[in-house]
Write a structure and sequence with these properties.
Chain A: Belongs to the binding-protein-dependent transport system permease family. Chain A: It is a multi-pass membrane protein. Chain A: It is found in: Cell membrane. The complex is a heterodimer of chains A (337) and B (426). Chain A is mostly helical. In chain A, 74% of the residues lie in helices and 2% in strands. Chain A has a domain of 195 residues: MetI-like (MetI-like fold). A five-stranded mixed beta sheet of chain B has the order 2-1-3-14-6. A five-stranded mixed beta sheet of chain B has the order 11-8-12-7-13. The termini of chain B are far apart. The chains are: A mainly alpha (337), B alpha/beta (426).
């Protein structure tokens, strides 16, 4: 069994190498490039619907969002027509005023600071826990499949259901967490009513929701590391930590760099956890950029569409910058992504 | 392949975000009234009353409309009060999914009207016996010389107290804030329970304290923002002191439910609340004997007693496909018979003078208690921005109560936000 698995992974690893070699080689592609339109018309036809759909559901809102961020549009001055009432659009182009207002105002930078802290905290904790669990579950332990199933559960439950359950657990007077603490003689913790505890609480919930994905992805990565490497290292006298550091971590790099990037993007824009748990409160303590942008265009009156789009565009720029830098770093380390 | 996963994941994430913003209600389906006289079609009504107590009565009353107009189908939808304003705005703005009739809180009405979401009711079937409505209840329905809603219920706030706990602690109902503090201290000492539950997540509950110190949010006559004057600071200090001294407990999330649970289970002795909470409170185990619930005017601040005047109106969506049936429905739901019914079953205060004369209503203790309170209650300025004033205030109010900012800084930021909102005000 063990032999079979390892031979398979060797073949897989070898296949991987071949694939890499081919994609790096440039000769083949050039040769075909000439008449690609004629030979690959069907590929174009296949892709066309997708391009169209993406253009409609992503392209149009994006362009409109960018346009709105350059105007002073709000709920009162946009065009709308309700029954007999027709109200024409009266908003105006204001250039980059919204951007200067957002960046020089104290709200954006403050919220950005907490958003970054939230992202770094969530991703690092989720990654460490996910890696720990993956390593644990990669060993031969009794009831392994039961643990795996249980650990995937948080992922299977719809997000809003989890968050609402957590809200009940966190309830100061009637929540389970404080009842357990009271049993241990500890005073009730104001989970969602104190700014610091609220921050800890939202991070904890996001980690709980995020760990299964990390675990599954890293477990997959672990299983593709050939067992021979560990055997060889053991023969050379490497201890457990050295094996982890010099075999497991490098072996996982391609998987871990992808999941980290995804996780950063998701967490940065993790709307439901914060919105449903605290609505950004108490006060504005847990408000991240996306929940604040949502607040501008859906929760205040009159709804400030311009400012909301401005924040949205700024979020996009930040994430694109992050992805570009990240990609460059990976490429320097020899990863193709 | 990896790129494929990433792209799929990104699209999925976007999908989730979009779904979170979209509204999921179907619009009322066609029909339309015939000019020949008999009404037909569907009227969708968004009710915002308290789930579990008030909603049952309103649902039944609304569906009884069919007895008068057999061809009209009433679709009753209960929308949680906290979500209704945004949900309606989303639906109205996009032009799909909005109800035909909405139960609009008094402060929302001028805002909705100003945005063009409501149909003017002057000269329609909705406004029957207009002169019968209480003046202060009708005030919020007018905007720019037209009437955009019909008053459904009127209310104000009082202090609800648990008579048994008061007896155990040997205290009297507090008349001032100082009383409130000493009463709470005594209750804590004798029974170990907290005196007052103070809502920290809704600025409406702050108004009694603000008015009690002689303050107000804005003064519409002089076009001045007044929330950040000395009275505003004082009021903020009063509520903070109530929480810091242990006289009151508070929550920054789920305040209404936590308040009701704590009071119904006898964990707190007092809460500030209005008639809308009475039916739900009676359902609590402490109040199986209804006589255990006491209600008194809110404790007075240094400038006197002040509770906000609130209530709900019925408004018709301008884009309704069934305007005539909607007008008739509004007329029916605000008719003396229906109001007498809700007064009898839920102890809600009618908005029609004539209903107060009915024997059932005249003998209802809660209504006879709240009527003078409503008469004296502080009216808000019915400007379109009235509905916008709470969002900045509640953020700062919660920040003050959770020690993130000082009372002075809190009211100052609120005032600054108001001046940004009300162009040209002082």
């Amino acid at each position: 069994m063990a032999v079979e698995t390892s031979s398979q992974s060797v073949a897989k690893a070898a296949g991987d190498d071949v694939a890499r070699g081919r994609s790096r080689g440039t000769g083949k592609r050039r040769g075909k490039g000439k008449c690609s339109l004629a030979t690959h018309w069907y590929a174009g036809a296949m892709v066309a619907p997708v391009v169209l759909v993406i253009g409609v559901i992503i392209g149009y809102p994006l362009v409109r969002g960018i346009w709105l961020s350059l105007t002073d549009a709000n709920e009162r001055n946009v065009e709308r027509s309700i029954g007999v009432n027709h109200i024409p659009a009266t908003y105006e182009f204001v250039g980059l005023d919204n951007y200067t207002a957002a960046i020089t105002g104290d709200q954006f930078l403050g919220t950005l600071g907490w958003t970054l802290l939230w992202t770094v905290a969530c991703v690092s904790v989720t990654f460490s826990l996910g890696l720990g669990l993956a390593v644990l579950l990669n060993r031969r332990i009794a009831g392994r499949s039961v643990y795996r199933t249980l650990l995937i559960l948080p992922w299977a439950v719809p997000g809003f259901v989890s968050v609402f359950s957590w809200r009940f657990l966190y309830n100061k007077d009637n929540g389970l967490l404080n009842k357990i603490l009271a049993g241990g003689g500890i005073d009730a913790i104001p989970w969602l009513n104190d700014p610091t505890w609220a921050k800890v609480s939202v991070i904890a919930v996001n980690v709980w929701i995020g760990v299964p994905f990390m675990m599954v992805a890293l477990l997959g990565g672990l299983q593709s590391i050939p067992g021979e490497l560990y055997e060889a290292a053991e023969m050379d006298g490497a201890n457990a930590f050295q094996r982890f550091r010099h075999i497991t971590l490098p072996g996982l790099r391609s998987v871990s760099s992808t999941v980290t990037l995804l996780s950063v993007i998701w967490t940065f824009n993790q709307f439901p956890v914060i919105f449903l748990l605290t609505r950004g409160g108490p006060g504005e303590a847990t408000q991240i950029l996306v929940t604040q942008a949502f607040k501008f265009s859906f929760e205040i009156s009159p709804r400030d569409f311009a400012q909301s789009s401005t924040w949205g565009v700024l979020i996009l720029i930040l994430l694109m910058a992050f992805a570009a830098v990240y990609r460059r770093v990976l490429r320097k380390q020899g990863e193709v992504w | 392949m990896r790129r494929g996963i990433a792209a799929t994941a990104l699209v999925a994430a976007l999908g989730v975000t979009l779904a979170a913003c979209g509204s999921d209600d179907k619009g009322s389906s066609g029909g339309g009234s015939k000019s020949s006289g008999e009404l037909s079609g569907t009227v969708t009504w968004w009710d915002t009353s308290t789930v579990g107590s008030e909603d049952k009565v309103f649902k039944k009353l609304a569906e009884d409309f069919t007895k008068k107009h057999p061809k009209v189908k009433v679709e009753y939808v209960n929308v949680p009060f906290g979500d209704a304003q945004n949900k309606f705005k989303n639906a109205a703005q996009s032009g799909s999914g909005a109800p035909d009739v909405i139960r609009s809180e008094v402060a929302w009405t001028p805002d909705f009207a100003n945005l063009g979401y409501l149909a003017p009711l002057d000269g329609t079937a909705a406004l029957k016996d207009e002169g019968d409505f209480l003046k202060q209840a009708a005030a919020s329905t007018k905007y720019n010389g037209k009437t955009y809603a019909v008053p459904q219920v009127i209310d104000s706030m009082g202090i609800f107290y648990n008579k048994k706990i008061f007896k155990d602690a040997g205290v009297e109902v507090p008349k001032t804030i100082d009383d409130l503090k000493s009463v709470s201290a005594q209750i804590k000492k004798k029974t170990g329970k907290t005196g007052l539950y103070l809502r920290g997540d809704d600025a409406y509950w702050f108004l009694s304290f603000l008015y009690g110190e002689g303050g107000d949010l804005v003064n519409a006559d002089t076009k001045t923002v007044t929330v950040d004057n000395a009275a505003g600071v004082k009021a903020m200090k009063v509520v903070k002191d109530l929480v810091d001294s242990g006289a009151a407990k508070t929550d920054a999330t789920d305040g209404f439910n936590n308040m009701q649970t704590a009071f119904k289970d006898g964990k707190v002795a007092m809460m500030i609340n209005g008639p809308w909470a009475v039916a739900d409170t009676y359902a609590g185990k402490e109040f199986t004997d209804k006589a255990n619930l006491g209600i008194a005017p809110v404790p007075a601040g240094s400038a006197g007693q002040g509770a906000p005047q609130g209530g709900h109106n019925l408004a018709v969506y301008a884009g309704s496909k069934n305007l005539d049936a909607s007008y008739a429905f509004v007329e029916y739901m605000s008719s003396p018979e229906v109001q007498a019914q809700t007064a009898k079953e839920l102890s809600l205060l009618p908005t029609r003078t004539s209903v107060y004369g009915e024997p059932d209503v005249a003998s209802n203790e809660l209504i006879t208690f709240f009527k003078p309170v409503v008469d004296k209650a502080v009216e808000r300025p019915w400007i379109p921005e009235t509905g916008s004033l709470f969002a900045p205030l509640v953020t700062e109010y919660t920040k003050v109560l959770t020690n993130q900012t000082s009372p002075e800084a809190g009211v100052k930021s609120t005032g600054d936000a108001y001046r940004k909102l009300l162009k040209g005000w002082k």
